[in-house]
Every structure is written in C-alpha cells, then in structure tokens.
Design goal:
Layout (H helix, E strand, L loop, with lengths): L3 E5 L6 H13 L6 E5 L1 H11 L4 H8 L9 H7 L5 H12 L4 H6 L3 E8 L5 E5 L5 H10 L9 E3 L2 E5 L8 H6 L4 E5 L13 H6 L4 H26 L4 E3 L14 H27 L1
Parallel strand pairs: 1-2, 1-7, 2-3, 7-8
Antiparallel strand pairs: 3-4, 3-6, 5-6
C-alpha cells in the first residue's frame, strides 16, 4: 500500500515559505499519511497534523516584535534566542492555541529530526501527543546551536536536526513512505557552503556536533543531488522557491515574513494540478 509522505526542510523564517505551500495544500484537501519536519519544518509542520491553516504565519507575524518571543534579551536571560517556555508552551497553550486534541486524534504520523550533541548523529522521533514532552521534541528539533540551550530528552542532549539531516527523505523512505513530497526553502541552484570556522570553534564543547557541522554542507549537497535524480525520474515531487527568499533566519519585518509566506502559496498554486496528479498515481 502506498504511503504518502511530506518532508519539510528547516531554515528558520524561510520556513514561512513552506507554511504557505502547506496551507494551500490543506485548503485544497491534499492529505498525507505522514509528515517529517526539521527545525522550522517541525515547528510549523505540526500544524498539518492539527489541521490549523494559517496559524504559523499568524503567530509569527503577531509576535515578531515581542522580545518575550525572540530577542537577544531572551538569549541573555534564558540561553535561548527564541524563548523556550514562551514559544513552545505559553504561546500554544493560551495566546494562539495549538489544537492539541486535534493533533492527538489525527491519524497522520508526525516525526521530528534532532541532532545528538554527543554523537553528531540524527535522532528521529515520532510525536503522537502534543503534551509537554511532545512540544519539547519540537523545540529540540528547532534549537539552533550557539543561540539555544541543549534540550534533554530520552537521556540525550539534543539540538537542531538540520545539523545532521536537513532533508530527511531517505529516512522516510526507509520506514515505508514511497510517494513523497519535499518542500525546500532554497531555490534550485542553491548549494550549501562550508560552515564558518569561528562557529565550529564555538562548538568545541561538543566535538562530534562540531564535526557534523563541518560536514553538513557535504551531506546537504549530496542529498540535493539525490533529490534531483528522483525528481527527474518522476519518483519525487519537489516544491522550492523560484528565487532566494527575502527573509532573514531571524526576522522582525512583518512585510518580509508575509512575502515569504505568500511566495509559498503562489508557488504551490502554480503546481497544484501537477501535485494532485502525482499523488493520484
């Protein structure tokens, strides 16, 4: 039996492109058996399982200038640029409620990718409940090195999954997903450059993590070639921005955030019939 999978790359606020594309899929009744998200792909992708169209762009634009949400003040006070308690618990619990009951009821399998700071290896985790621990797994996936505290779960210290597996297509294939859609946040011609040596030195407390960061561009670019080959053969559907997104990894401009989101919607709209045909094969 065919299993339809949705793979969401990270990229901090570039993830609003993915949010726009995915919202248009949901509006048009396109469904998946499973979703796997990395970093922002996890933080925004959880709304697919809860069925909340528009939530990602709404709370990000509303909170964009709130220092309690994201600020260097938060980094100095808490160790997290994106305030962990506010972003992953206060906000979804009471400010812009995350529909935890809908998430828990949904048959869609939702996975996140984190990186083990002691081994540098990816950790794949299925989140079935949007309880405190489930939200912590999503936080771990999106916790960028240097500007985030390590998240302790299952006896492991975890950080951003993008360090070890930015586009986990092969993992989804390995667990039986054979009709997959990948949403990237970089245009076709993009290739990742080696990490800044200064950043690697800042991670010397975790040598395996620093090594994974040093190799990240090689792993990422090889995965892009794998994706291109499968796409060319008709075995994969890929949605990507037509040009570099005009939005920063940390963004406070509502206009730029809306632009990234609308670009995702427009890009998806242009490919909607092709996507429906691909998933119907």
């Amino acid at each position: 039996m065919t299993k339809k999978g949705l793979i969401l790359e990270g990229g901090a606020m570039r993830g609003l492109f993915s949010a726009g594309a995915v919202d248009l899929m949901m509006i048009n009744g396109i469904e998946f058996d499973g979703v796997i998200g990395v970093s922002a792909g996890a933080a925004f992708g959880c709304n697919v399982k809860s069925g909340q169209i528009g939530r990602s762009v709404r709370y990000n634009t509303q909170q964009s200038k709130n220092p309690a949400y994201s600020s260097f003040r938060s980094l100095l006070r808490t160790g997290d640029l994106y305030n962990a308690e506010y972003c992953y618990h206060t906000l979804p619990d009471s400010i812009d409620p995350f529909d935890k009951e809908a998430f828990d009821r949904s048959p869609v399998e939702f996975y996140v990718v984190c990186t083990d700071v002691d081994t540098g290896e990816p950790v794949y985790h299925r989140v079935d409940k949007a309880d405190y621990e489930g939200m912590e797994w999503i936080r771990a996936s999106a916790s960028m090195p240097i500007v985030s505290r390590t998240v302790q779960l299952d006896g492991k210290g975890l950080l951003d999954g993008g360090v070890s597996d930015s586009i986990p297509l092969r993992y989804f294939e390995s667990i039986g997903y054979d009709r997959n859609v990948v949403v990237l946040t970089r245009p076709l011609e993009y290739r990742k450059e080696p990490a800044n040596p200064v950043l690697l030195k800042l991670m010397r407390k975790y040598p395996a993590l620093a090594d994974a960061m040093a190799r990240r561009h090689e792993v990422y670019n090889e995965t892009l070639e794998y994706i291109l080959e499968k796409e060319k053969n008709g075995d994969l559907f890929v949605i990507r921005p037509p040009e570099p997104l005009n939005v920063g990894k940390i963004e406070h401009s509502v206009a730029r955030m809306q632009e990234a989101y609308q670009t995702g919607r427009k890009t998806m709209e242009a490919q909607l019939d092709a996507l429906k045909a691909y998933l119907a094969e």
